[in-house]
Design brief:
By secondary structure, this protein is mostly helical. The protein has one domain (about 1-165). The chain is about 70% helix and about 0% strand. The protein has six helices and no strands. Helix 4 (about 55-75) runs parallel beside helix 6. The longest helix has about 35 residues, at about 90-125. The chain is elongated. The two termini are about 20 Å apart.
Length: about 180
């Protein structure tokens, strides 16, 4: 999922760059000096412009990319953390906090997945489309839902593994990053 999210993110960067370059070249073609000195060039430049609906594609793609990165971040324990306060508490308390956060994140991901499903079915039912390029909004919801289902499975898995580590005989079922020992 992370590779897929990264690929979509790279595609969005390319779309944004092409759109900005096209818009700037179009503006260049409208400069009076360019129109006077090179009318053919000015005409060619003014035919360029931003990519139609670029912001709609970026909006949908970024939403998917974010959801696609969650499973990797969770399974590897690489979410951004602020451990200014937890650096001074005992390791056992930190493990308990990790368990609580993993449980909370699993619950949040279940709710997000459920609401994405409800939102997607609403978008399908109402036939809602984007303003500029008129693609059905439910497509973006469906892609995000796919990533959210994977993220939910991973967050529940990590939470269950954390709980197992606290059970008698569970010992160190999880490494520091939450992914388990290999």
């Amino acid at each position: 999922m992370a590779f897929l999210g990264g690929g979509v993110l790279l595609l969005l960067v390319a779309i944004t760059c092409l759109s900005v370059v096209g818009r700037n070249l179009n503006s260049l073609g409208h400069l009076p000096i360019v129109e006077q000195m090179a009318p053919a060039l000015a005409e060619a430049l003014t035919s360029l412009g931003s990519i139609n609906g670029d912001f709609e594609l970026v909006e949908a793609g970024i939403a998917f990319s974010i959801m696609a990165f969650f499973p990797w971040c969770q399974i590897t324990g690489r979410h951004a953390t602020v451990d200014v306060l937890t650096a001074f508490i005992p390791a056992g308390m930190n493990r308990l906090l990790d368990l609580l956060w993993d449980l909370l994140f699993a619950v949040v991901m279940v709710v997000i997945t459920w609401r994405l499903y409800v939102g997607m079915t609403d978008k399908i039912r109402y036939g809602e489309t984007t303003f500029m390029i008129q693609f059905p909004i439910w497509w973006a919801f469906a892609l995000c839902l796919l990533a959210a289902v994977v993220a939910t499975l991973v967050t529940v898995y990590v939470a269950v593994r954390r709980i197992a580590a606290y059970l008698p005989g569970g010992g160190q079922a999880l490494g520091e990053n939450g992914a388990g020992k290999s």
